[in-house]
Amino acid sequence: MLTFIGLGLYDERSITVEGREAVRDADRVYAEFYTSKLLGTTVEELESAHGVTIDVRIRAGVEQQPEDILEAAEREDIAFLTAGDTMISTTHVDLRLRAHDRGIETRVIHGVTAQTAASALTGLQNYRFGKATTLPFPYAHGAEGLPASVTETIADNRADGLHTVVYLDIKADRDEYMSADVGAELLAEAYPDLVGVVVARAGSPDPLVAAGTMTELAERSFGDPLHLLVIPGECHLLEADALVELAGADRGTLDIV
Q: pTM score, two decimals?
């Protein structure tokens, strides 16, 4: 059995009860933190909280050399841990399919995702979000200006009146996390007056939600990571009320329908 378990968003307590029980019942526990990390805890604290030893794998050890994980799952109950929800924005569907090819039973135990947390914290309705995009560090995409993947996603969602989640680049293996002010500064080059909403430290005891134009957000500091940006589309009256009350938005800057 190979069980994929989402750890949630922040620390060793963010996992669901079902996930916690599955971790404790597993014969072996593997994890990867190259796609994201739980910034409110450490591997050692996770091990202590759940009474297990965790074998942390780098990207190559999961995507290119997963044989020992699969061989173990043929004989034992294996838990595979990731931050957030285990199959969201990761490549682990490939690992699950490899397991199925070998006749290994799999299951998925979900955790909270950044997108659902952003919807809850901002008051924007989850079903009114369009396609998400990721804003990379400039050195990571190697081109001038914003990548087309970002501008086209924003343009398409705005044309349909939908909200956009802009994930900010993470280089977890280097402990490098794009902050919202840096992301806003990059976006302000093309969209200086576009309204954005910062969501910082979702899932932690001190989340922060703050709205403003990209130019305004670029001048502010939002504290410790992780951060993301939400670009509101057309807002229902209740959504607008939430952004004003919860994020300090200027009602006059919102597109209210």
A: 0.91
Spell out the domains of the chain, with CATH numbers in brackets: 2-109 (3.40.1010.10), 114-256 (3.30.950.10)
Starting at the earlier edge strand, list the strands of the sheet with 78-82: 54-57, 28-32, 78-82, 2-6, 106-109
Burial class of residue 217 in the structure, from the number of CB atoms within 10 Å of its CB (0-12 exposed, 13-18 middle, 19+ buried): buried
Question: If the chain, 257 residues long, is cut into consecutive pieces of 10 residues, what is the mean pLDDT of each piece?
Answer: 96 97 98 90 97 93 90 98 84 91 97 94 97 94 88 98 96 90 97 98 96 98 97 98 98 96
- Write the DSSP string, 12-60: TT-S-HHHHHHHHH-SEEEEE-SS---TT--HHHHHHHHT--EEEE-HH
